[in-house]
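Supplementary Data S3. Sequence and structure tokens for construct A.
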Amino acid sequence: MQSICFVDCFTQKKRVRRVSEEVTVRDFFKRMLTTFTWIPKGAMQTTPLHSTDSAEDVRNKLRKMHPDYIEEEAGHLAAEDDDDADSNDGGDASDMFNRFGGGDAILAQVESDDDEEIDDTTFKPTDVPFVVSRADPQEPKMELYVYDEPEDNLYVHHDMTVTAFPLSCAWLTDGTMSLAALGTMMPFIEIWPLDVIDAVEPACLLGGCENSDDNYRRKLKKDKLKEDSHKDAVLALKWNTHVQHILASGSADNSIKLWDLNNQTCVGTYREQEKIQSLDWHHQEANLLLSGGFDGQVILRDCRRPEDAAVRWALDDVLEHVEFAFHSNLVYASTSNGTLQALEPRMNSTALWKLQAHDAETTFACSRQLPGLVATGGKDGFLALWDARNAAAEPTQIVSRKYKTGSVMSIAFHPNSPHLIGACGSRGQPLVYTMTQDLATIF
């Protein structure tokens, strides 16, 4: 079956008011959703956590309550870090944060005499959670939604007020909690604990000012930033699922940075000529990093051999999005003039094919579970599915429709469920789209 669900179909507490098409610029940005990020099934704690304390207060309380556990766990993680240094590889998710949030920032479970409140916030096995970023200039926020698959409806579970206009987001975990790395117009990265309701601040920051209080002043002074911090907005984020203590970020300061989440420091920086718009880690070779920027350059690097020359392709417009194909050795890239192109790492000159997918700015996603399935979304408001199983030929269109997202800002296949795709855009309504019927005769 084909199923399409928008947030205005149903919400947990109230219906969403439809807004007139005649809106001011401020209203437009207030509605706009800039990122859509799936949370894998089973990754959220069944019963969420509540917090009225700062992250540092929580850590201090836990150390006093469980000193033996903290000391033992710190020793275990330090040993794992020594092993990682020898192997130059990541570890299991449960071993990766020896100082950062996660394991030692677990809060008390929700305590309430209100059974209805607990039931409303508890995650059921059929719940499909995701996070979107809302670009409200007065109150920018991240919203954690739940898609109730059997009932085919969406509702906001809880939200988090963030520092500034959100631009990029990546889900990650420390093995105990679901977390979101958020890039904004500010020159630092916020790491938010998604399992915590009423969280008033991030678990930690990557980059920013030496004095953390300076990060949130009305006007941040760049001369107060840490030496390894970004110096401008963070436009792209990507977690390395193999070396799980590494997060990559791309910025309007023309740099890519690699962050060690264990100690919240920058462990590598790459400089480019223009702003970095998109990043992707290879799904099998953990050292390969792909990037795309405002100069039309698609760049493939081996991060273990920074002295080697990167593979570069020069495209004809600003890069909107780049990804490694999951089931081939190809690289895909989309541009602001609406094209989707396939690139071969061994042929760093021209594209294998170039598809005019949309009229203007285009983003896309590659399916993990269905080889050759690609989804695109454009500024024109259309979402399309493409059959790209023939790597040497231009993809064929399966379906193209215009939904209520408006200009599509972000699109993503669900990491566990091959039939689900999510998207969001300028109209402020996230979309969950079940593709079963559209793909029935093709995949």
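Construct B, processed identically:
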Amino acid sequence: MLTGLSGRTAVVTGGARGIGAAICERLVAEGVNVVVADIDGDAAVALADRFPTAVAVSTDVSVPGGAETAVRTAVDTFGRLDLFLSNAGVECAVRSVVDFDVEDYERVFGVNVRGTFLSVQAAVRRFIAQSEDRSGDGTSPGNAGRLLLTASTASLVGSPGMAVYMASKHAVHGILRCLTGELGPLGIRVNGIAPGSVDTSLLRSFEVGKGEHAGIDAAAMRKAMEASSPIGRYSRPAEIAALAAWLLSDEASYMHGELVTISGGTAP
């Protein structure tokens, strides 16, 4: 068990499937109370119902009030918020800039960038309120709250046909960099994770799109993407969840403002 997680309360956005679901499962195993927040309410309920210390909330973090709904659920159910994982994200079409649909651009930036920004706002406002309520009670410095943002190795590189998705993940990286100086003095730790290719449904879409862009089928693109890793395979969601749990624990107490890649050796 990791130190400093048992008994805490977390919100995980985009928590119903993929990386988010794996993080929820790992946190529950570490003794954390978990709010599974997802736009797909049925999927969120299906996951939360598997665990006695998890609840589901259907919410859209890309709209004002969406992230606040998840935070309020955590406080109303478990009494407080300690950990917030801004993980909700969407993929997009793989197309050249000149052919890209502006409506798809708006959708991707709405979730990946505006959703991250609004989630950070909601979580930090709650962390500050709780810190003020407990001022003078001997609460340890640096323990006012912990944020974790899901970026991507796409926030570090560029690739043909991927300008919109990669720009959205570069923006998440930028938000992290700005939060570092803002939140440290408030006793709030913030970090980011940058997964490479993770074996999830989101990656299936990219296999198809990148394959079409390269003139090969999805199966061939998968083989090429797996072969590009020195390890020779995609990562598993549970491997990403293990890193996320560690960054949120007391064992990573000096990790702040870091974007930690987990790419099997493919990150630059």
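The chain has two domains: 9-198+235-262, 199-234. The longest strand covers residues 188-195.
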